[in-house]
Structures are given as structure tokens and as C-alpha cells.
UniProtKB/TrEMBL annotation:
Residues 8-25 have a biased composition (Low complexity). The lineage of its organism: Eukaryota, Fungi, Fungi incertae sedis, Mucoromycota, Mucoromycotina. Residues 1-25 are annotated as: Disordered. It is found in: Lysosome membrane. Belongs to the BORCS7 family. This is BLOC-1-related complex subunit 7. InterPro entries: BORCS7 (IPR032143). Keywords: Lysosome, Membrane. It comes from the Eukaryota.
Amino acid sequence: MQSNRWLSANSTTANSTTASSSRASSIHEDQQQFFASKEECHLKTNKAFDDWENVLKGLTKPAQIHDETLKSAKLFTQVDSLSNSTTLSMEKTSKLLDRLLDRKLGILAATKDFNDIQASLDVNPIARKHWINQEH
């Protein structure tokens, strides 16, 4: 009966070893599944964050486009007002140049008149005689 006991003790030990190794392997498999599911969860979370980021970027793009449109419109109105002021300045400058041209023509007419008067008086011979007399 003793040998039977030993066999039964051996078989109990073998069964407990098998049971503990199967429990260890079951725990190891559970941990692997946990870590695999944890990694999968992290990947899904990262993907969800990336998706939200893309959605938010998509939502902010129309706002950015709107802001850029407003900036362009403001710059266009500034260019328009600068164009108007430039046009006014050019018109004033043109009028001023016309007045200067009129004055120049008046000055040229007066100079021509002086030349005509000098030619009709024939002052040169008289002036030469005067200078020559003063030298002697």
C-alpha cells in the first residue's frame, strides 16, 4: 500500500505541478493579452487623438481662410484709398506744373521782349563807345 501511496503522492504532485504550470501559463497569457490590449488601447487612443486633431484643424481652416479674406479685403481698401489719394496728388501736381509752364512762357516772352528792345535801341555800339572813352 505504501507504493500505492507513493504513486498517488507522485501523481498528486505531478497534477499540482501541471496545474500550477497551467495556471502560470494562463497568467502569462492573460498578461500578454493585457499588454497586447493595452498596446492596442494606446494605439487606438493615439489614432483617436490624431483624428480629433485633424477634425479641429479642419474646423479652424475656414476661420483662417475667413481671416485671410478679411486681411486681403482690408489691404485692398487701403490700396484703394491710397490710389485715390495718389490720384488727387497727381491732379494737384499736374495743375501746379501747368501754372509753372504758364509762368515759364511768361518769362520767355519777357526775355524776348528785352532782346527786341535791346536790338531796336542798338545799345551795344553806344556802350562800346562809352567804355572806350572811359579807358582813354
